[in-house]
C-alpha cells in the first residue's frame, strides 16, 4: 500500500486531504507542527528515514500576508527552507513531492487569468518566499508537482469563517470588504480532489487548481451571507485601499490540457461547504 505523508495535516488543505483520501488505498501519515517541524532539517530527515513515504504532500504554509511582511525571516524559514528540506529528503528516497503554492507568486497586475507558463513576479514577502520554495522543489526533487491555488477556505481561520463569525455575532453590524481584489475562491475540499488526481501518475510540473469563475472579495462576502440567509444580519461596506485593481485569477490550463476533472464553480463549492458545515463558523 502506498504511503502518503501529509505535512501540515491540521490546516485547511491538509485536513481536507485526510478526510478525502481513502485509507483502503493509501496509508496516510499525517503530521503537523508538533510532530514534525518542516523547518528542522534533522526532524524531516529522521521522519523520512523511519517512515519512508512514497509521496510527500507539503500543506504547510506561513500565509498571512501582513505577518509575512512583519516577519520575513519566518516567512522564508517556513515557505522556502521548509520546502527545501522536504525536497531534499523526497529526492533522497526517490519519493514524489506534491507542494502547495499560491497565486501570490504573480504580481496581480494582469487583467486576464495567469496560466502555468506565465513568469511569476511576486510583490509581497509571502509571494517571494513561496516562489523561492517552488524553485527549491523544482531544482532539488525530480518527481515534483507544484499546485497553486487561491483564496482557500475550509476548517480553520479564513475569510469565509471570518464573515460567518461576524454574521453570527449580534454585536457586529457591519464589515468593510475590498471591492478591488479579484480571485477564485477555492474550497479546500475541491483543492484536495485535484491533489488526489495527481498522486498516482507521472504528471509532474506546475498545476493551477482553483474553482471555476472569479469574483471580488466584496462579491464573495455577499455570496457567503446569501448562502446562510443572513444578508440582513451584517452590512457589507465596499472599500478600495488603493487605486489599483488586485487581480489574481488563475487559469487551470494544465488540468484542462491533461483532461483532469476540474474543480466545480466557486459558487457551487461555497454552497457545498455551507451545506456540509451548516454555515457555522
Ligand atoms: N489559505 C489560502 O488561501 C491559500 C491560498 C493559496 C495557497 N495556499 C497554500 O496552500 C498550503 C496550505 O494552506 P492552508 O490554508 O491549508 O494552510 P493552514 O490552514 O495555515 O495550515 C498550515 C498547517 O501547517 C502547520 N505548520 C505551520 N508551520 C509549520 C512547520 N514549520 N512545520 C510543520 N507544520 C507547520 C500549521 O500549524 P499551526 O496552525 O500550528 O501554525 C497548520 O496546521 C500552503 O502552502 C499555502 O501557502 C493557501
From TrEMBL:
Keyword Cytoplasm: no
Main EC class the enzyme belongs to: oxidoreductase
Sample GO molecular function, one term: dTDP-4-dehydrorhamnose reductase activity
Superkingdom to which the source organism belongs: Bacteria
CDD domains: dTDP_HR_like_SDR_e
InterPro entries in the record: dTDP_dehydrorham_reduct, NAD(P)-bd_dom_sf, RmlD-like-bd
The RmlD-like substrate binding domain, residue ranges: 3-276
Keywords, in A-Z order: NADP, Oxidoreductase
Pathway(s): Carbohydrate biosynthesis; dTDP-L-rhamnose biosynthesis
E.C. code: 1.1.1.133
Keyword Nucleus: no
Biological function: Catalyzes the reduction of dTDP-6-deoxy-L-lyxo-4-hexulose to yield dTDP-L-rhamnose.
Family according to the record: Belongs to the dTDP-4-dehydrorhamnose reductase family.
Protein name (record): dTDP-4-dehydrorhamnose reductase
Organism in which the protein naturally occurs: Blautia stercoris
Amino acid at each position: 500500500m502506498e504511503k502518503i505523508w501529509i505535512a501540515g495535516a491540521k490546516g485547511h488543505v491538509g485536513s481536507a486531504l485526510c478526510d478525502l483520501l481513502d485509507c483502503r488505498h493509501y496509508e496516510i501519515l499525517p503530521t503537523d507542527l508538533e510532530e514534525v517541524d518542516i523547518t528542522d532539517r534533522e526532524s524531516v530527515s529522521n521522519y523520512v528515514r523511519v517512515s519512508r513515504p512514497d509521496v510527500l504532500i507539503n500543506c504547510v504554509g506561513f500565509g498571512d500576508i501582513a505577518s509575512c511582511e512583519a516577519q520575513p525571516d519566518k516567512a522564508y524559514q517556513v515557505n522556502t527552507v521548509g520546502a527545501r528540506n522536504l525536497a531534499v529528503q523526497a529526492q533522497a528516497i526517490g519519493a514524489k513531492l506534491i507542494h502547495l503554492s499560491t497565486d501570490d507568486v504573480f504580481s496581480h497586475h494582469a487583467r486576464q487569468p495567469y496560466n502555468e507558463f506565465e513568469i511569476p513576479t511576486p510583490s509581497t514577502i509571502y509571494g517571494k518566499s513561496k516562489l523561492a520554495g517552488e524553485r527549491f522543489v523544482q531544482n532539488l526533487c525530480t518527481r515534483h508537482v507544484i499546485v497553486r491555488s487561491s483564496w482557500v477556505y475550509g476548517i480553520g481561520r479564513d475569510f469565509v469563517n471570518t464573515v460567518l463569525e461576524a454574521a453570527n455575532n449580534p454585536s457586529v453590524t457591519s464589515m468593510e470588504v475590498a471591492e478591488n481584489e479579484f480571485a477564485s475562491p477555492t474550497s479546500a475540499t475541491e483543492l484536495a480532489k485535484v491533489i488526489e488526481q495527481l498522486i498516482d501518475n507521472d504528471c509532474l510540473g506546475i498545476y493551477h487548481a482553483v474553482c471555476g469563475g472569479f469574483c471580488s472579495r466584496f462579491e464573495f462576502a455577499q455570496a457567503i451571507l446569501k448562502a446562510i440567509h443572513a444578508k440582513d444580519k451584517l452590512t457589507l461596506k465596499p472599500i478600495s485601499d488603493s487605486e489599483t485593481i488586485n487581480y489574481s485569477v488563475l487559469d487551470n490550463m494544465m488540468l484542462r490540457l491533461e483532461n483532469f476533472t476540474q474543480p466545480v464553480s466557486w459558487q457551487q463549492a461555497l454552497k457545498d461547504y455551507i451545506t456540509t458545515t451548516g454555515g457555522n463558523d
